[in-house]
Design brief:
Strands 3, 4, 5, 6, 9, 10 and 11 form a seven-stranded mixed β-sheet that branches. The longest helix has 27 residues. The radius of gyration is 23 Å and the shape is globular. The protein is of the alpha/beta class. It has ten helices and eleven strands. Among the domains are: 68 residues, Arc Repressor Mutant, subunit A, CATH 1.10.10; 103 residues, D-Maltodextrin-Binding Protein, domain 2 (3-Layer(aba) Sandwich). InterPro entries: HTH-type_LysR_regulators, LysR_HTH_N, LysR_subst-bd, WH-like_DNA-bd_sf, WH_DNA-bd_sf. It comes from Paraburkholderia ribeironis. GO terms for molecular function: DNA binding; DNA-binding transcription factor activity. This is Transcriptional regulator, LysR family.
Length: 295
């Protein structure tokens, strides 16, 4: 069984079709079909079910996918270690991140990392908290930004305690002119985030046993800010999510203070390939320096 067949298998899974996999791998569709057919023949069972809309993994394909990804990651690590022995830093690093990290931190992190390691390719995948945790667990990314509590089995490095704030439309007046309380949220219409994206709000409300009414839900930070700015409600947001957004919303800290703990996660810090280890160290240093500048 060849690594080429493994790459073809994973590319079909990730792209959803033979044609898209062929384009990604710079192969002809017939070469992709032949590689998969040979792989399935060696295994003795089919990996995909074909239909008019695309392909779907069989039960055997689902069971085999994590192991194939581990083999490809090991091969990547081997190549990077060999390159390092030659005095080079080469390879690919895949990072999973949620929206506010992607906007506030990653541009500068990627740019400064490229200055240090121009031969390392960096791939960014953006999603919700649950998406990133799942990508790490399935070895689809090397590193991921998540919040605590983390799923069992993940190796986490603390990065930043991100304050939670209440954003409100112009003219909004809380009981105190300086801050909001969590209990006060129950008196207003609260804009909530879709499932998998607003974990910090859910945790905050659950910890204080507060129920709120909501007539609006959104996924991305920009949409929530726009909805609040239009006067349709208030919202709980991490302070980091407000970076780089210009709006007329008012921002109130909570009293007592509330925050979310952002961490950098992987399956195993010690088992990371050289390029991923270098990125891990760079992220920790970069976020630490950013925290000092904004304190």
């Amino acid at each position: 069984m060849s690594l080429n067949a493994y790459e073809v298998f994973v590319a079909i899974v990730e792209r959803g079709s033979f044609a898209a996999a062929a384009h990604q791998l710079n192969l002809s569709p017939s070469a992709v079909s032949h590689a998969l057919a040979s792989f399935e023949q060696q295994l003795g069972f089919a990996l995909f079910m074909r239909n008019r809309t695309g392909v779907r993994l069989t039960v055997g394909g689902e069971a085999l996918l994590p192991t194939v990804r581990e083999v490809l990651q090991s091969n990547e690590k081997l190549g990077q270690q060999a390159s390092k022995l030659l005095g080079l830093e080469a390879g690919t690093v895949r990072i999973g991140a949620f929206s506010s990290v992607s906007v506030a931190w990653l541009p500068n992190i990627i740019r400064s990392f490229a200055d240090l390691y121009p031969k390392i390719d960096v791939i960014i995948e953006q999603g919700g908290y649950d998406d990133v945790a799942e990508w790490i667990a399935k070895s689809q990314v090397d590193l991921g930004f998540i919040t605590l509590p983390a799923a069992p089995g993940l190796d986490v490095t603390p990065l930043y305690a991100d304050p939670l704030v209440c954003i409100a439309p112009p003219g909004f007046a809380p009981r105190s002119t300086a801050y909001m309380t969590v209990e006060e949220l129950a008196e207003h219409n609260v804009v909530l985030q879709g499932e998998g994206y607003g974990k910090e709000t859910q945790q905050l409300l659950a910890s204080h046993k507060i129920s709120v009414k909501s007539s609006a839900r959104a996924i991305d930070d920009a949409a929530i800010i726009a909805i609040v700015e239009s006067g349709l409600g208030i919202a709980v947001m991490p302070q980091l999510a407000l970076h780089h957004y210009q709006s007329s919303v008012q921002v109130f800290p909570f009293y007592p203070a509330e925050s979310r703990a952002i961490v950098l996660a992987s399956l195993s810090r010690e088992a990371l390939a050289p390029a991923a280890k270098a990125m891990h160290e760079h992220i920790v240093a970069s976020v630490g320096a950013w925290s000092k500048r904004t304190a």
